[in-house]
Amino acid sequence: MILPESISGPEFKDGDIVSFTFEDAELTMRLPIIPDDPGEHNTVSSQTDFRNVDTTNWSHYGDEGNCSKKIIVQSWNYTDYDGSHNRLFVALSFLKICILKNSQAETDSLLNLNSKTFTAHYTQSLHDPDDDEPENRPDWPTLSNNYFAKTVKKEVLDGLQAQLDSGSCDEFPTLMAFFPLNKQFSLQIAFDFGSYHYFGESAPKNPYSYEFWRALGLELFDDLLSYVHIEYSPEARAIIKELAEKQTAL
Amino acid sequence: MFLHNSSSHIKDIGGYIFFSKNTMGRSGRPVKIHTDLFLDFFSAVDPASSLGQSVIRDIESLKIIATSHSFPFPVAERECRPGTSQREIQGQKKNLEIQKAMSAYRENRRERPLNTSSVRAFYHIHQKDEDKCPTVYISEIQILRGGKKTVGGLYEKKGASKFTKVESSNLEGKTVVISGATNSLPKARENAEIISKQEDVPLFYCPDSVAEDLGIWKKNRLTSSTKKLAKELEKTIKDNQKRKVSWIAEGEGAALLAHAVKAIPNSLETHSFKFYNARANLPALLQDLTQKNARLEGEFIDYELDNTQDRTALLAMASHNQKLVQVIGGLPRVNGYDDITRRYLKQQIEGLGIAKTSTSNSVLSKQQSLRGGSQTFVDLLLSSNKGA
Predict the structure, then answer these.
(1) Which residues contact B378 (CB under 8 A, 6 or more apart)?
(2) pLDDT higher than 80, residue B124
(3) Looking only at Cα atoms, what is the longest distance across chain B?
(4) Which of B152, B164, B331, B175 lies closest to B240, judged by CA?
(5) Per-domain residue ranges for chain A?
(6) Do B50 and A203 touch (CB under 8 A)?
């Protein structure tokens, strides 16, 4: 995608290619090149090989043995140039990418190695019965609209894309995506994008509408996901094929 | 007669120096800036960062922008009625030229804003006696602060992927980070995880708007939103007053804590406090906490963030250096390891006093030394930045 002419900031198409290795899978994606500005984050895990990885020190959650590990944290801004030499921040992004480890039962069920079971599992994980249903906000992700969950088509195994009310009273939802890496690990991408507003009555105003930023955030996220590529081993492909055939036969 | 049009912000008209080597008039209009703006500029603009460089470039572009302003001339030329004498025509032409010159002068002296991403500069054009040509004068700098419209307050992890604002919470046995002024919640959360070395640590989030109210050189005149946030922090502490809580206050979060702690009655003996790149009057806060028997253990003051020194925090430290060492010296006695780390902390701060405070103090006094010197504003910014 191409940013509107007057807006400038990092773009995924110009990004660095990074790779991570897992048992039965090689993950490749593009990360934007971030200016080294104070207060911004730009951390990429120095560990790139996760074969036989020790997960003792990962962040554990729930009581069934799930845990996660951050591998990428980046934040950056977009600026707008009004043609009269005024340059302003207009939007900001925060990208966090984690590896999620399944519980033993989830691993044994091979749910990650089938597009349908994988997307169903992660759609279910988004459901929160305590979620408020805001009135007159048809664009807001809720249980009723299934958090705008949709499949991200990939060559071998599909991923899942959704939007989430992060609970932070933010006017923009967090854009989320999940991809299966192998029977044990999944990739979770969380992208917080939204408009930048200066404080104070006399401060410059953001020149674009909320709808504009919502649409641009989704476009940027689609762009980011289009560069996620997972190469599965022949052994994994064989199991994936077998599971798909079994499902078709049912 | 045009004085009412001159800048109202800077009274001292002698304190202007060239902004940078690129704006000394060799190309475009010269651009000058008042030395009183140095401290604000130093705190807001890091010339080593790409953001800082773009702010400097944008301000330098005034030399071009300011030549391209077109000025409206409200006085229209009128045709002379028949029979007007040559003398009257000459007189009218002269009057017209004077009015045009006055109009241009007024327009030049009108103050205009230039918005850069983090700083708004107000400038006017004037030719003083010592100026070779009309010069751009920057007489006011406003630090622009902003971010997402997320409200401040206490946030905690809920479920697998939510981080939710809570009105009250049982913080027994927990570490809580009070964030510095940050322009988005995910960024503050990430900082909190780095500082506390804990994933999903509870966070009292301070949006970037509080930075304006809690600046280290500003009088404490809190806006209603910052007052409300300080009240929320006060309530959170009161709700957990009898519980064991470890607090880490980062940046302006320490200044917010200072406001909240003042209103806490009785003891905070089960609460421990640490400070990270604190942008606050730390000696006064430590005294308040000590009076309430709060625990200040180990190396409770830290000034590193990703190996990058926080310059504003360092200046806050420099301006209270001796007092800070005194206050730490006067804290209740501790034994064993804590005594050793406290001595180490004092040495560190005293060390900072020698190695860093000399630089920081020179930054604090720089606005005076700037005057009459041959260096430009950006030169001094760069040299101060290297020192800090």
Answers:
(1) B19, B20, B21, B47, B56
(2) yes
(3) 105
(4) B175
(5) 7-47+68-249
(6) no
Alpha carbon distance B168, B154 (integer Å): 8
What are the C-alpha distances in Å from B95 to residues B1, B73, B86, B106, B146? 17, 13, 14, 16, 49
CATH class of B153-355: alpha beta
What pLDDT does B68 receive? 56
At a CB cut-off of 8 Å and minimum separation 6, what does B67 contact? Answer: B28, B29
| Strand ranges (E), chain A | 7-8, 16-22, 25-31, 42-44, 59-61, 66-81, 87-101, 150-152, 159-164, 174-180, 185-195, 197-198, 229-232
What are the extents of the domains in chain B?
A: 3-143, 153-355
- Are A192 and B184 an interchain contact pair (Cβ–Cβ within 8 Å)? yes
Question: Contacts of residue A62 in chain B, CB cutoff 8 Å?
Answer: 160
Interface of B with A (CB under 8 A): 46, 49-51, 54, 58, 61-62, 65, 114-118, 120, 144-151, 155, 158-165, 182-187, 190, 199-200, 208-209, 212, 308
* A60 at interface of B, judged by CB pairs closer than 8 A: no
Residue among B215, B272, B283 nearest B249 (CA): B272
Identity of the residue in B62, B164, B186 whose CB atom sits nearest the CB atom of A167: B164
3 state SS of B221 = coil
Identify the residue whose tokens are 């590193």.
B304
Q: pLDDT tens digits, residue range B205-242?
A: 999 888 877 765 555 567 788 899 999 999 999 999 99
pTM of the predicted structure, to 2 decimals: 0.85
- Does the distance separating the beta carbons of B183 and A196 come in below 8 Å? yes
**Contact A170/B49, CB-based, under 8 Å?**
no
How buried is B201 (Cβ within 10 angstroms: 0-12 exposed, 13-18 middle, 19+ buried)?
buried
Per-residue pLDDT tens over the stretch A106-139 = 999 999 999 999 999 999 988 877 777 776 788 8
Enumerate the β-bridge partners of residue B247. Answer: B176, B273
Identify the top-confidence range among B84-98, B107-121, B162-176, B213-227: B162-176
Amino acid residing at B121: A
Minimum CA–CA partner of A63 in chain B: B160
d(CA A170, CA B207): 12
Q: What residue has token string 């971030």?
A: A34
Go through chain A and tell me how many residues it has: 250
B150 band by pLDDT with thresholds 50, 70 and 90: confident
Chain A hits for B115, Cβ within 8 Å: 86-88, 204
H helices of chain A, in order, are 104-108, 115-126, 210-226, 234-249
pLDDT of residue B228: 93
Higher per-residue pLDDT: B343 or A212:
A212
Residues of B in contact with A40 (CB under 8 A): 187
